[in-house]
Amino acid sequence: MTIKPLQDRILVKRLESEQKSAGGIIIPDTAKEKPTYGTIVEVGPGLRSDKGDLIPMSVKKGDQVLFAKWSGTEVKVDGEDLLIMKESDVLGIVQ
Fold it and tell me: The pTM is what?
């Protein structure tokens, strides 16, 4: 199964956070916060303006992005946890 986002939505795969703290303590899965950065898997075509012109997306497939903590809707595709969110939920591109 594949998902193609509509309008200005993107499909993001979260990147896993570190397993250890800076002091070397191993952090269990239950205590870890969900990461707020990930890789874009799919991108919609863009948003339409009031005049009907297509406004292209600022991000592209493969970009690593930072997004708001509670943004997006979690979906499961082929056993993989992904997020679908609007482009406006992206705070920046990680370079």
Answer: 0.75
